[in-house]
């Protein structure tokens, strides 16, 4: 596309699946962004929880440049060391045994669902008197992607209805243990859930519910999939959010910050399920290529050598600051989430708050209509966190005076 093309014309040629705002961001540094006119924003959205290392991270930039100068792509027909090293590190961090690399969270979930469905099919071949279903169970409020399989386990009607019929899925309310027990008694292929729902309004599942879900899946021989695309990779204070509940799923899916901003998803599975897919069952031309893998190795090394401690410290600082804001204003109903994945419930006015924050130079998001979502880069400093909180306080004050 020519750089002289008008902005409106260029935008009109992109499918309207998003409503992008006006600025063209041209430069970033850490938690800060500048547009083509020189205006500055502090970034508490991180490309929707993607830029864990922030913008223009020197180690990441150097590693990408080095790898680009060596080899960009070889396909998965051939081995390459970065992908194998990355798989080894991820298995250690997730306590899993095998990994499939893809390009997004939706793709990671597609792989997980296919593994579970084939596992049920194989079970039925061997045990015709103890049949498993091909249907799935998921939670209301969950969001797992927009490809047809991942959309099938996403509960939001407006996302689902135009693309029906989808895969059969039973939806259960979060924390409804009796409803979950009833659904799992139908012998589905899998239960998929987010330990901390991102798009669903920053809803944290209780430790008791997560533990109970694990026990029921064991009881009914159902594959348990944890979608940690948004809550995983350290964002909530542990590498996997469900670690806090002491729960180990059969499959966990990751993406978002994994490759520092480059596209990457990962489906991490137990040894037993790691034997399910055979050559030809699944694939990804670009998944886990040299460039994304080397970027992910930098991200994981940074996480293990300092970022984990920074997430804990900044998460505590953010929690205290947000709690103080909630206590100070009748507009705010509650704070949700933990670590660097948090939200403020602002009934009826979250979108207004987001817009005012944007104009004030702060990037945040919304979730489930009434929730302001903050998922900042892991590299944010104490000063950055104070700046985010001060911006929020300023916007809140202006809305308090006009309500």
The number of strands is 17
- Tally of individual domains: 2
Helix fraction, binned, reads 25-40%
What would you call the quaternary organization? single chain
What structural class should be given to the helix and strand makeup? Answer: alpha/beta
Low-confidence stretches: none
The coarse silhouette is: globular
Q: How many helical elements?
A: 12
Largest sheet: 7 strands, mixed
Q: What integer is the average pLDDT?
A: 95
Q: What strand order characterises the main sheet?
A: 4-12-11-10-7-5-6
CATH second-level architecture of the largest domain: 3-Layer(aba) Sandwich
**Rg, alpha carbons:** 21 Å
Q: In what range is the share of β-strand residues?
A: 15-25%
CATH fold topology of the largest domain: Aspartate Aminotransferase, domain 2
Question: What does this molecule look like?
Answer:
The longest helix is centred in the C-terminal third of the chain and has 39 residues, at 290-328. The N and C termini lie far apart (45 Å). Helix 3 (58-70) packs antiparallel against helix 10. Helix content is 40%, strand content 17%. It is an alpha/beta fold and 403 residues long. The chain folds into two domains: 7-56 and 308-402, Aspartate Aminotransferase, domain 1 (Alpha-Beta Complex); 60-301, Type I PLP-dependent aspartate aminotransferase-like (Major domain) (Aspartate Aminotransferase, domain 2), CATH 3.40.640.10.
Provide keyphrases for this structure.
Aspartate Aminotransferase, domain 2, Aspartate Aminotransferase, domain 1, 17 strands, globular, 403 residues, alpha/beta, single chain, 2 domains, seven-stranded mixed beta sheet, four-stranded mixed beta sheet
């Amino acid at each position: 596309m020519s750089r002289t093309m008008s902005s409106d014309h260029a935008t009109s040629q992109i499918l309207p699946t998003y409503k992008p705002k006006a600025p063209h961001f041209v430069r970033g540094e850490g938690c800060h962004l500048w547009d083509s006119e020189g205006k500055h924003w502090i970034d508490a959205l991180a490309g929707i929880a993607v830029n864990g290392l922030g913008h223009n991270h020197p180690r990441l930039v150097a590693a990408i440049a080095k790898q680009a100068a060596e080899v960009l792509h070889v396909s998965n027909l051939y081995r390459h060391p970065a992908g194998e090293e990355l798989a080894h590190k991820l298995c250690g961090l997730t306590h899993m045994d095998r990994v499939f690399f893809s390009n997004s969270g939706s793709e990671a979930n597609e792989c997980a669902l296919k593994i579970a469905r084939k596992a049920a099919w194989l079970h039925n071949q061997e045990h015709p008197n103890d049949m498993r279903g091909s249907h799935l169970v998921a939670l209301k409020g969950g969001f797992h992607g927009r490809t047809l399989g991942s959309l099938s386990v996403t509960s939001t009607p407006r996302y689902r209805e135009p693309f029906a019929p989808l895969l059969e899925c039973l939806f259960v309310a979060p924390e409804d243990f009796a409803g979950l027990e009833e659904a799992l008694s139908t012998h589905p292929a899998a239960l998929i859930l987010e330990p901390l729902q991102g798009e669903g309004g920053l809803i944290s599942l209780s430790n008791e519910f997560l533990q109970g879900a694990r026990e029921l899946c064991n009881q009914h021989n159902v594959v348990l999939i944890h979608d940690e695309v948004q809550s995983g990779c350290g964002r909530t204070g542990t590498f996997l959010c469900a670690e806090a509940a002491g729960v180990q799923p059969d499959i966990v899916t990751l993406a978002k910050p994994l490759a520092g901003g480059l596209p990457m998803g990962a489906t991490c599975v137990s040894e037993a399920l790691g034997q399910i897919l055979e050559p030809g069952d699944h694939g990804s031309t670009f998944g886990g290529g040299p460039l994304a893998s080397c970027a992910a190795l930098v991200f994981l090394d940074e996480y293990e050598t300092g970022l984990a401690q920074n997430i804990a410290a900044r998460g505590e600082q953010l929690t205290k600051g947000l709690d103080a804001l909630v206590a100070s204003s009748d507009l705010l109903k509650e704070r949700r989430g933990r670590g660097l994945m948090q939200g403020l419930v602002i009934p009826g006015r979250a979108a207004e708050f987001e817009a005012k924050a944007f104009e004030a130079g702060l990037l945040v998001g919304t979730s489930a209509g009434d929730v302001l979502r903050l998922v900042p880069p892991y590299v944010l400093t104490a000063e950055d966190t104070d700046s985010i909180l001060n911006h929020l306080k300023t916007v809140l004050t202006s809305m308090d005076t006009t309500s």
